[in-house]
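Supplementary notes for students who missed Thursday's class. We covered one full example, reproduced here. Read the sequence, then the structure, then the short commentary at the end.
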Amino acid sequence: MTDPRSILPVPVWLRYWAVLTLFAALPLVLLGAEVTTKKVGMVDDVGFRAPWLLFTIDVRETPLGYLIEHGHRLAGFVVGIFCIVLALGLAVAARSWYRLLGWAALAAVGIQGLLGKYRVDLNALFGDKLATIHGICAQLVIAVLVSVAVLTSRTWATSGTAPVALRRGAWILSVLIFTQIVFGAIMRHLLDPLAQRLHILLAFVVLGMVFWLFARIRRADCDPAVRRWSILLAVLVSIQPIFGVEAWIRRFGTMTLPDMVPSSLALDLARSGHHVLGTLIFATSVALTVLLLRPDRLRRPMLSETPDIDSNVHQVHQLEGVA
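Structure (token representation):
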């Protein structure tokens, strides 16, 4: 019998590289959250600096905000390099439409990098509005990287699908989570009162939707990968309200204008932690959605697989015995 691993459309090392690319983006998300929390996005009014800048300065005499902002930029360069390797590797070694996945990841990261550059260069014209767009698009970049990692995995290529109701529910949930994140970004950057209300109201909807989906997956005949992702999603969503309430109280419940609240370790942990955890929740929901949206054709054996002759003979003998 042919080894299923030998007929998978993506080589093993590229599957692992796609996962590493996703993990390489997590420091970028964390540093980006800290840039916004500490309001250090404009500590350097030059949009592009050499990626090795941090290695040419004395970090002991450099303000923390400057280090965070340029650490964020350096992390972006690192993720870009990972995506270049992924794109070239998939283009050369993968099969069929899998070759396009790396280019999609590279395009998403490249566009996000340009948004980051022009967020600084055009700050005089757009101010925090462009920073808001940059923050929202970061979530889409993470969604692309998560999707590439799942689509290139062995689970995607060899496992079956789930009921239609679960697929639709997961898709709707991902859209709801992204919408809530959009309102959260508007609230975080622009302090819009309508966005504040909608962000909180959608939190209740998302919470209910997550546990509805979790219960349906537990009752359905889903594969272990889907079950694991649903458990992780339920755990993350259960923790998120703690960070959300703490961030809200520390920024809006201090009898001080939100922009005038002094920075502190507790405030930074609450606000940045809430942002990063929200990104992880969205990434988990996207991974779960992609797994559940696997096409039905993957239920059938691949054409290049050799049938298990011994198993077929055994079944024939069983039928003869019954007859």
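Commentary. The chain has a mean pLDDT of 86. Residues 166 and 315 are 34 Å apart (CA to CA). If anything here is unclear, bring it to office hours.
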